[in-house]
């Protein structure tokens, strides 16, 4: 019976992980499918004047379930009105609806949600989430909750799995991740690590830097960090090369992308969608209470779960097991 319960628990955790991966995929896209050409909304429950709305893309599965999990987390903290929006929205009609509902702050999910929220009345506060990164000119000094895991959490997990780690390599496209690298370097330094980051704006340059890294790395104390970066961690050619070469050289590789763990990286951190919703709700409530969000700019993901590849850990001769604090284990047990 215990085995049956363990199987059920692992299956549910895997589903959560795959849905979180789906969220990363939709977050990297700037558009959403047009389901209804406008918006639909429903009052989840609300009383009084502390009105919060959630705007999210009206798209199909599995993304719909991901946003539903985030919204469940928001509902656990506060009253909301939620709006599912297509790719074409009548902003005037939406503004009128928000006024009628006495909305003071909007939680915008996904690039589509943020794009629409940026065109709302200026007296409505906006808390954004469910995106990887947003160009500075689109943020409007708003709090944007990124789906990029906080490097401090990633590096702490690395140290827990590989205490001898001293140096981390990464390759990034500055057009996508220039905002993240200074934060990551500070986080590494705080944990006694050195982050060596190489800029690459095309696949050819990225491959060359990876080859340099493999030639210079000491597998006893070095590790490679893969970012959410469509240039430097391109799925078709770059990722297979990195995975094969790191395996051959027994070099630890960890990633900000959950999908890479199944393919062989040591571990990743991925969104806990319900807890992310709770965090977004707390920011919206802070704005309602004080007129300030508490945080501004890009906010790194701290509501995370951990996925680990035990086959890779065994290959690296790391002393870990499924009984440790992991939310998802590959290969599936």
Give a description of the structure:
The chain has 333 residues and is α/β, with parallel strands linked by helices. It has two domains: 39-131 and 272-302, Rossmann fold (3-Layer(aba) Sandwich), CATH 3.40.50; 149-268 and 305-330, 3-Layer(aba) Sandwich (Rossmann fold). The chain is built from 13 helices and 14 strands. Helix 2 (63-75) packs across helix 12 and helix 9 (203-216) runs parallel beside helix 10 (238-248). The longest helix is centred in the first third of the chain and has 26 residues, at 2-27. Mean pLDDT is 87; it is low at 29-37 and 42-50.
Helical residue percent band: 40-55%
Broad structural category? alpha/beta
Q: Could you spell the SSE succession in H and E letters?
A: HEEHEHEHEHEHEHHEHEHEHEHEEHE
Largest sheet: 7 strands, mixed
Q: Determine the mean pLDDT.
A: 87
Question: Separation of termini?
Answer: 16 Å
Could you say what the CATH architecture of the largest domain is?
3-Layer(aba) Sandwich
Strand content: 15-25%
